Amino acid sequence: MRRIMAVTFFSILLAGCTGTQKGAGIGAIAGAGLGAIIGHQSGHTTEGALIGGALGAAGGALAGDAMEESADK
Description:
mainly alpha
């Protein structure tokens, strides 16, 4: 149930954003999830989630920006 609520919330939240913002948001969510999983293996779940979220946001923003630029051509 929590997952459904989270997906719905983030879908509504990202609906009116630019491609760069959507990419950053999706990247942050995915990165935080993966970082938490990897961090959990070494006993540092929170730190892994924070680092993964930051890296995911940066990577997602770059990807979203590149997609916007290619769509503008």
